[in-house]
């Protein structure tokens, strides 16, 4: 790989979407305000598929800082083989294939600055998604006690892996959706994800 992985992650954040860059594929990009995560897929020197997770934060001018590497490892599935993906899902629309926790700056300081608050424990899930799904819906569930949850967000499914990152205390229900004319049909098998925090 000629281009450093952090540079590929930075480009993906700047574009706000997954990209392909030769031997490295951007599996998914998760952006929530000033906080961003990028999941990269590549092949190791021994030929095994591997993944790397990167994180970054926007500065006050709106530019992304150089992404930090949070972790990685071998992927136990050939994601380019859709039949293997569907076999692994065993009829479910989605499944959690990896999850991790990392202490990161989230930009939630008094004025949103990276250096104005302690790092927070952010929980990241990697979801394997069926080829039948065209979108996923992130439905925020109310916290107790808490103000009204933010509105649901819908994301295009652009590959078999999708990221979901939650701040401490956040709870969501993830639905896989299929387009039906002008509306969306929820596939059975929603996932409830919760980051209880520190």
Q: Mind explaining what this structure looks like?
A:
By secondary structure, the protein is mostly beta strands. Helix content is 10%, strand content 46%. It is built from two helices and 13 strands, in the order H-E-E-E-E-E-H-E-E-E-E-E-E-E-E. The chain has helices at 5-15, 82-89; strands at 20-21, 24-32, 35-43, 49-57, 68-74, 94-104, 120-129, 135-140, 153-156, 161-166, 171-180, 183-186, 191-194. The strands form three sheets. The chain has a five-stranded antiparallel beta sheet with strand order 1-2-3-4-5, with helices on one face. The protein starts with a helix and ends with a strand. The model has no long low-confidence stretch (mean pLDDT 88).
The chain-level structural class is: mainly beta
Largest beta sheet: strand ordering: 1-2-3-4-5
Residue-averaged pLDDT, rounded? 88
Poorly predicted tracts of residues: none
**Gross geometry:** globular
The total of helices stands at 2
Helical content stands at under 10%
Radius of gyration: 17 Å
- Number of separate strands: 13
Q: Please indicate the percent range of residues in DSSP E strands (runs of 2 or more).
A: over 45%
Distance between the termini: 37 Å
| Biggest pleated sheet | 5 strands, antiparallel
Order of SSEs, N→C? HEEEEEHEEEEEEEE
Sequence-ordered SSE layout with sheet pairings:
Elements: H1 5-15, E1 20-21, E2 24-32, E3 35-43, E4 49-57, E5 68-74, H2 82-89, E6 94-104, E7 120-129, E8 135-140, E9 153-156, E10 161-166, E11 171-180, E12 183-186, E13 191-194
Antiparallel strand pairs: 1-2, 2-3, 3-4, 4-5, 6-7, 7-10, 8-9, 8-11, 11-12, 11-13
């Amino acid at each position: 790989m000629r281009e450093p992985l952090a540079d590929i992650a930075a480009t993906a954040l700047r574009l706000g979407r997954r990209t392909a860059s030769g031997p490295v594929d951007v599996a998914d990009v998760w952006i929530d305000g000033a906080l961003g995560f990028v999941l990269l897929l590549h092949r190791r020197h021994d030929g095994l598929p591997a993944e790397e997770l990167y994180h970054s934060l926007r500065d006050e001018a709106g530019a992304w800082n150089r992404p930090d590497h949070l972790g990685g490892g071998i992927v136990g599935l050939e994601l380019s083989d859709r039949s293997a993906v569907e076999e692994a899902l065993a009829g479910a629309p989605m499944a959690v294939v990896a999850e991790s926790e990392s202490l990161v700056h989230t930009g939630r300081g008094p004025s949103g600055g990276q250096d104005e608050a302690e790092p927070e424990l952010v929980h990241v899930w990697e979801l394997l998604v069926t080829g039948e799904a065209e979108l996923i819906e992130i439905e925020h569930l109310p916290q107790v006690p808490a103000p009204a949850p933010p509105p649901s967000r819908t994301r295009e499914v652009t590959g078999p892996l999708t990221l979901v990152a939650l701040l401490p205390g956040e709870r969501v229900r993830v639905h896989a959706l299929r387009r039906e004319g002008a509306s969306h049909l929820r596939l059975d098998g929603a996932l409830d994800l919760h980051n209880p925090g520190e």
